[in-house]
Amino acid sequence: MISKRIIPCLDIRNGRVVKGINFEDIRDMADPVEMARYYNETGADELVFYDITASFEGRKLFTDVLRAVASEIFIPLTVGGGINSLDDFDRVLKCGADKVSVNSGAIKNPSLISDAAKRYGSQCVVLSMDVKRVNGKFCIFANGGRINTGIDAVEWAKRGEELGAGEIVLNSIDTDGVRGGFDLPMLRAIGETVKIPLIASGGAGKMEDFLELFRYDRIDAGLAAGVFHTKKIDIRDLKKYLYDQGVNVRFM
Amino acid sequence: MIAVVDYGVGNLFSLMSSLRFLGLECVVANKKEDLLAADRIILPGVGAFGDAMAKLVETGLADTIKELANVKPLLGICLGMQLLFDKSFEFGEHEGLALIPGLVVPLAADINPGLKIPHMGWNRLQIVRNDPIFRYFRSGEWVYYVHSYYAKHCSESVLGVSEYDIMVTGLVRSGLVYGSQFHPEKSGSAGLRLLKAFSEL
Predict the structure, then answer these.
(1) B51 vs A: CB within 8 A
(2) Does the ipTM exceed 0.85?
(3) Looking at domain A5-244, which of 3.40.640.10, 3.40.50.300, 3.20.20.70, 3.40.50.150 is its CATH number?
C-alpha cells in the first residue's frame, strides 16, 4: 500500500532557505542544495520548495536552486510561490519540478487549476490553502497569509477538487511555527468534505504530533519546516517511531 | 550510450539528470539515427496513451523501436511501459507497440472503490521473478508511482508487483524489453540502482 509521507518544506528567498513564525519574522537558515541532500539521505518522501521572493532576480535564483536540486535529488519535488499562470507552471516543470502548487494565483483566477489540470494532469496540480479561524469560521488567506479573502476554507477545498486539483496542502496559520501540534479540527473539517489526498502543514513540534496526525486516516502526508531544519526532529528517527507505532511509512 | 526517446510527451529533465548522476552517457533522441547509434533505449512518457502512440507512429520512431527491440535493451517507463503492450483501453481502444503480450486497463475497475486513483506515491516493489535488473535491488524496497491504468494479462512477463488492493504490475520483461510502471528516476536510491542495473544489461 501507499505509504504516509513526510515532507520537509524549504522556503526560498534570494537563493537561501529561510523560516518564519506565524508567517512572519523570517530568518536565514541554510543552503538549499545542501539541505535537500541531507533530507534525501535521511528519508524525506518528497520536498516542497516555496519561492517567497517577489523580485525578478530572486525568481531567477529560485529556478537555479531548483535545477541544482533536481539534478541530484531523485524524489518528487513540489514547487510553489508566485504561480499565477500556465507559463509559471512551464517554467518550474522545465527545471525539474514534478508538481506545482497554486495558492493566491488560484484564488484570483480559479480556472488556473482546471487549465493546468487539463494540460499537465491533476497529479501535477496541488492546491495550497492558508487557513485561519476568523469568528469561529475557517477562512482562506491570500498573499502569504496577509489578506483575509473571506472565502470559506471548506467550500474552497471542495471547489479546488472539482476544478481538478490532485491534492491539497492545508496550512494552518493559527498553528504555524507554534509547534503545539497540527490543527486537527481544521484538517477534519476539510477531510470530511473532499476525497483527494491531503497534506497537513503547520504546528509540528514533536514526533507524537505526526502520530496523532496519521491516526486520522484522511491525511496522506505531514509537512513541516522548522522542526526539520533545526534538527529538532530527525526524519530517520521519526520514520522509525511511526513504523514502530504501526504507521505505514517508507522506512529504509 | 543510452538514447532517451523524445517524442514530445512529458518532461525528460529528471530522467536525463538521473542518468548523468550515475555517470552514464545519454542523449535525448528524436530521430531514427540516434536510436541506431545507441546501445540501449529508454522510452519515457506521461499523458494519454492514444496521443503518445500517435506521436510515436507519426515520427516513425514506433517502427524503429520495434525493429531494435530484439537487438538492444529497451526500458519503457510509466506510459512508456504501457506503450510496450498490445492494446490500451484509455479513452477508447488503442494499439500499442505489441512488444510484450498484455493489455492496459483502468485500475479503478479492479480495485476497492474506496482507494484513490491515481495510484500515486511510494509503494513496495515485491520481486516475483529474479532477473539481472534486480542486481542492486532488494525485494520490498520502495518505488514511486503515479498512474491510473495498469498492465493486465501479462503474468508471463511480470518481474515485480506492488500491492494496492490487488497486485499491480510494477516491472515487466520480455526478451530484451523491460518496462517499469513506477518512476525509477523519482524513486530515490532504489530507482537509481535499477537504472544502473539496466545500463549494465
Answers:
(1) no
(2) yes
(3) 3.20.20.70
